């Protein structure tokens, strides 16, 4: 463990550890980004808005996500089924909350809302 890691902003636990780009508290399970400091919700980081999936995982460009519910697609009789894997996403500032730009096999390029996907 590193002595220069900050304590947990939720419970002030001193045993935080790094897991990828996040810091994790083993005592309460809280996850946060080092850039967010004491922002407990982790919605703003150094580069602006942090985009999270439906379960709260922070998303980044190039991630692979899974669609968690069946989505209707205009002009398609079947839509996108729950469980569809979407690779190599790109985070954008889209229209009406659509903040993921991606290409889905069988459908082509489209934008999705981060609230309907889960990071793999």
Automatic annotation (TrEMBL):
Protein name stated in the entry: Phosphonoacetate hydrolase
Keywords, alphabetical: Hydrolase
InterPro entries: YjdM, YjdM_C, YjdM_N
Source organism (scientific name): Streptomyces chattanoogensis
Annotated Gene3D superfamilies: 2.20.25.10, SH3 Domains
Domain Protein YjdM C-terminal: from-to ranges: 51-120
NCBIfam families attached to this UniProt entry: phnA
Family to which this protein belongs: Belongs to the YjdM family.
Residues in Protein YjdM N-terminal domain copies: 5-33
Pfam families hit by this protein: YjdM, Zn_Ribbon_YjdM
């Amino acid at each position: 463990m590193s002595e220069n890691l900050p304590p947990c902003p939720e419970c002030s636990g001193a045993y935080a550890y790094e897991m990828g780009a996040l810091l994790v508290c083993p005592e309460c399970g809280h996850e946060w980004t080092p850039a967010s400091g004491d922002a407990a919700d982790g919605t703003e980081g150094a580069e602006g808005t942090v985009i999270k999936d439906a379960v709260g995982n922070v998303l980044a460009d190039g991630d692979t996500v899974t669609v968690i519910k069946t989505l209707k697609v205009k002009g398609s009789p079947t839509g996108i089924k729950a469980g569809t894997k979407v690779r190599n996403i790109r985070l954008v500032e889209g229209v009406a909350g659509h903040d993921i730009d991606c290409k889905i096999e069988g459908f082509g390029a489209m934008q999705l809302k981060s609230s309907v996907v889960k990071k793999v």
